[in-house]
Design brief:
- The chain is α/β, with parallel strands linked by helices.
- The chain has one domain: P-loop containing nucleotide triphosphate hydrolases (Rossmann fold).
- 35% of the residues lie in helices and 27% in strands.
- It has eleven helices and ten strands.
- Strand 4 and strand 5 form a beta hairpin.
- It starts with a strand and ends in a 5-residue tail after the last helix.
- The structure holds adenosine-5'-triphosphate and magnesium ion.
- The site of adenosine-5'-triphosphate (ATP) has 13 residues, from helix 1.
- The site of magnesium ion has 4 residues, from helix 1.
């Protein structure tokens, strides 16, 4: 498998001097999906944010398609091929659905406005509505659509299912399956619902206090409940039944 992303010995934190992740190394193949798991506050968001250039990086390296992007500015990363769906979604409340999508176009490719509407028909119905008029599920679809329309090679999803009704979780999970199978975008999926994340990913890593404490095949972790529970806690290991 051709390597898409390589993270080597990455140490990262914030402007106030906090170091959150230390010595993280991982490799992601083109078109593959990696589940990134771990308890609250272990550094999952910080790792994604570091790949987006949003943190302070005293040490280590991030390489995308063989190019060192460690010090590239955040606003250029969409052009480099990274689509980011942040934990807070961060859609523009005073722009319509269609305007939110239009401002995100960075690279040409299969993900056009029409393709995003075909993936999420609900967004087409809501195209003239403002961001602040959308339900949580619609906002998340918009955040994903906005990342897709920049035609990324790598999609970073930070807890995309958080706070959503089970029926919406299922719709989004089906969409992620399609995104992977039909367009071959690689994904790093941060998720508290371990079972859903592991069933969508081939590989998984578990973070604890800023370090990788487990790495391997998702299936291994999915079928070893005891290990999963010891790594991320019982509540997060059981099926999502909200
Ligand atoms: N902007 C910031 N400035 C300083 N410290 C921060 C900042 N953002 C996060 N942190 C700290 O970094 C640590 C890891 O936070 P992070 O958000 O990466 O964890 P997480 O694994 O994503 O947690 P969660 O599951 O709750 O989303 C926490 O101790 C947090 O307080
Ligand atoms: Mg987080």
């Amino acid at each position: 498998m051709t390597e898409l992303l390589r993270v080597e010995g990455l140490t990262a934190g914030y402007e106030d001097g906090t170091v959150v992740i230390e010595g993280i190394s991982l490799s992601l193949g083109e078109g593959s999906t990696l589940a990134l798991l771990g308890r609250n506050g272990v550094g999952k968001t910080t790792l994604l944010a570091s790949i987006m250039g949003l943190t302070k990086i005293p040490d280590g390296r991030v390489t995308l398609q063989g190019r060192d992007i460690t010090r590239r500015e955040t606003h250029t990363r969409a052009f480099d091929g990274i689509g980011y769906v942040p934990q807070e979604r961060e859609i523009f409340p005073s722009l319509t659905v269609e305007e939110n999508l239009a401002v995100a176009r960075a690279r040409k490719g299969a993900w056009t406005l029409e393709a995003v509407y075909e993936l999420f028909p609900r967004l087409a119905e809501r195209r003239r509505n403002y961001g602040n008029q959308l339900s949580g599920g619609e906002q998340q679809m918009l955040a994903v659509g906005r990342a897709l329309i920049s035609n990324p090679v790598l999609l970073l999803l930070d807890e995309p299912f958080e706070g959503l009704a089970p029926v919406i979780v299922d719709q989004l999970a089906a969409a992620f399956d399609r995104i992977r199978n039909e367009t071959g975008i690689a994904t790093i999926l941060v998720e508290h619902h371990a079972e859903i994340a592991l069933s969508l990913a081939e590989q998984a890593i578990v973070l604890d206090r800023g370090q990788i404490v487990w790495a391997g095949d998702s299936a291994t972790l999915l079928h070893d409940r005891a290990m999963l529970a010891s790594l991320i806690g019982i509540d997060d290991a059981v099926a999502h039944e909200a």
